[in-house]
Amino acid sequence: MRSVAVLPDRTSLTRAVADRIVAVAEEAIRERGRFTWALSGGRTPSELYMLLASPEWSKRIDWSRVHFFWGDERCVPPDHRDSNYRMASDTLLSAVHAPPENVHRMRGELEPGEAASRYDRELRQTLEGELRNTFPRLDLVLLGMGADGHTASLFPGSLALTERERAVVATTVLVGGEMGAPASGVLARPGAGANQRLTLTLPMISAARTVVFLVAGADKASRLLDVLSGQHPGPPYPAELVRPEGGAQWFVDRAAHAKVDSGR
Ligand code: 6PG
Q: How far apart are CA 106 and CA 75, in angstroms?
C-alpha cells in the first residue's frame, strides 16, 4: 500500500528522506552485502545528496558497499551542466569516495539507442540473480515528479510508457511535451528545443524493492493532488504508473501537499 509522509518544509523533508535511505541501505547491506540505488536527477535531490555527504550523515552508510545507478540521464557528456551524473558526483559521489567500479553511469555521450542497450546489459549483469518479473531488482529507486506528472524521463504521452520488455530506453523530450519512442522505434526528429534522454522503464522501476518519491514546492501541488487521488481527466500520469510491490513511498513538503489538504 502506498504511503505519504508530509513534512513541514524542505529541510525536514530532506532529512526524512535521508533517514529512509539510510534505513534501506542498512537493511540491504545486512541482508545482501550491498545497496543498489538508482539516483534521481533534477534540482530537489541535490540538497538530499549534500546532506548525505555531510560529516553528520556520511558515516551512517558504508559507501564502499553502495552501487550507484541512475533513473534517467540527459544525452550529454558527464561533465555537461545538465548531466544528472555530474550533479550527483559534485554533491555526493566525490565526497563519499564511491569506488569507481560501483558507479554505474548512463553513458549520455553515446548514441542514445546504444547507450540504452548498454545500460540495460549493465543492470542485468550487475544485478544478476536478483530479478522480479524478468527485470533486475534494485534495492531503491529515488524519483522526483515534474509539475506535468513526469518521473525519471517518462513524460505524459510518451511511447516509452508502453515499454514492457526493456529496462532502459532512449526517448526524446520536446519543450512542452514529449515525442519519444523506444530506441528501436523511430525517434522523433529532434527539433529546436528537443533533448534526448535515457530512462528506466516503468516495469524496471516497479521491480525495485523500494521506490521513494521526493516532491517539494507549491508548483507540484495540483499534480500531486491528481496523482495521489487518481481523480483527474485524461490518462494516468507517469508518476501514477509507478507501482512497486508494497506501493511507492511518497515524501512531500506541505507546499506540495497543499491542494490535497484543501481538497482542490
Ligand atoms: C530529471 C529527473 C526528473 C525530475 C523531475 C522533478 O532528470 O530531471 O529525473 O524526473 O525528478 O523533473 O525535478 P525537481 O525535483 O527538480 O523539481
A: 9
Q: Is the pTM of this model over 0.90?
A: yes
Could you tell me which residues come within 8 angstroms of residue 50 by beta carbon, excluding any fewer than 6 positions away?
A: 91, 92
The DSSP line for 164-198 is -S-SEEEEEEETTEE----TTS------TT-EEEE
Across 212-236, average pLDDT? 97
Closest ligand 1 atom number to CA of residue 45: 15
Pocket test residue of 48, 150, 173, 253 for ligand 1, highest count of atoms within 8 A of CB: 150
Using most ligand atoms within 8 A of CB, pick from 40, 47, 173, 201 the residue to mutate for ligand 1: 40
* Residues paired with 142 in a beta bridge: 212
Cβ contacts of 57 within 8 Å, gap of 6 or more: 18, 22, 51
> Domain 3-262 belongs to what architecture?
3-Layer(aba) Sandwich (3.40)
Instruction: State the pLDDT confidence band at 130, using cuts at 50, 70 and 90.
Output: confident
Q: HSE-up of 172 (CA within 13 Å, CB side)?
A: 18
How many Å apart are CA 232 and CA 35, to the nearest integer?
37
Does residue 13 register a pLDDT over 70?
yes
